[in-house]
Amino acid sequence: MLDKKYGDYLPILNDALFHLTYLNYIMKYDVPIGCRIFSSVRRMLLTVLLFSVYSSVYAQTEVKANTLFAPLAIFNVAVERPVSDHFALQGEVFISPWKSFAGRHLQLYLGTAEARYYFSTEHRKWFMGGYFSGGFFDMQKWNYLDKVPITDENGEQVYNADGCPRITNVFQRGFALVFGVDAGYKFKISERLNLEAFVGVGSVQGFYHGYLADTKERSETAENWNKSGEILPTRGGLMLSYVFK
């Protein structure tokens, strides 16, 4: 349950409404007609002010870090902010900086926006959500983890100078868009600490080029991006969070 009743915020909302009206009047009549840039600034300022006032009603902000990936120096952090008794919005960043991890490419830079519904008004316990992610990667896809024999344009095996068959890893470099759903459970540790277990699955739309790991040459001849669409587990972990009130 949120700390304050709606009635406690009526003076704040009334005062904000007055300032919004006044700001709109000043910027509407004092700015020359035809100056589109000032019109855009006006809309932006009004939007920011409205968001600030609305956020003050639900002022608690939760900062999180994924404890499963942190020991691997893979950074997954998020900020969650309630927008009603049951709904919350979350922004998240996932960064895997590894140029080589266990001999494989594993660089991933991903941003995620999520809308979340809590079945409890305390913004704890069971929840479900929908999310959108986008980012860049330089890594080996799940179906390219094993080394592959290299063949020429005629399909014949290529050999190294020492007479051994040429075998190497293939990695992909490009960007991806993800649309998915997730669910989880948030445990209360203390008034300001929570532990959140969650998992998500989504549609991953990838756009990439393939490269040979030993020479960094292209592994395919596509003129534009290679494309793939897959349903995969895309999120998960144990988020340790701190609540600012």
Task: Walk me through what this model shows.
The protein has 245 residues and is of the alpha+beta class. The protein has helices at 10-30, 36-57; strands at residues 61-66, 75-82, 87-101, 104-118, 125-139, 148-149, 167-168, 170-188, 193-212, 226-244. The protein folds into 2 domains: 6-57; 61-244, Porin. The chain is built from 2 helices and 10 strands, in the order ααββββββββββ. Residues 25-38 have low confidence and may be disordered. The longest helix has 22 residues, at 36-57. Strands 1-2-3-4-5-8-9-10 form an 8-stranded antiparallel β-barrel. The protein has a two-stranded antiparallel sheet with strand order 6-7.
Keywords:
245 residues; alpha+beta; Porin; 2 domains; two-stranded antiparallel ribbon; elongated
